[in-house]
Amino acid sequence: MTVVKVVELIGTSKISWEDAVNQVVAVASESLRHIRGVDLVHHTVSVQSGKITEYRATCHVAFEVEHPSHIIGIPQEEGVLQEVH
């Protein structure tokens, strides 16, 4: 059984929206394991004096949730959640 959690993160870049999304993935990968996908839900820019100064990408990052038994090495029966003390 796989459970996936989705978190919303906002990346920024001086270069492009694509780079802003790459920033989201790079930073999220430092603390989240098993990232399965990223959905770009919104993109905006900051403008000063008629020029784009920053690209912003709002992303939903999906990652697989680890069951506690997987972390400590206890086998889990198929379809049965086991309580770990």
Question: Can you put this structure into words, describing what you see?
Answer:
This protein has 85 residues and is α+β, with helices and mostly antiparallel strands. It has one domain (4-65): Flavin-binding protein dodecin (Dodecin subunit-like, 2-Layer Sandwich). The protein contains two helices and three strands, in the order βαββα. The chain has helices at residues 17-31, 68-72; strands at 4-13, 35-48, 51-64. A three-stranded antiparallel beta sheet has the order 1-3-2, covered by helices on one side. β2 (35-48) and β3 form a beta hairpin. Residues 81-85 have low confidence and may be disordered.
Q: Within the CATH hierarchy, at the fold level, what is the topology? A: Dodecin subunit-like
SS element count, helices: 2
In whole angstroms, the N-to-C terminal distance is 21 Å
Radius of gyration: 18 Å
Structural class label: alpha+beta
Strand content: 35-45%
CATH superfamily: Flavin-binding protein dodecin
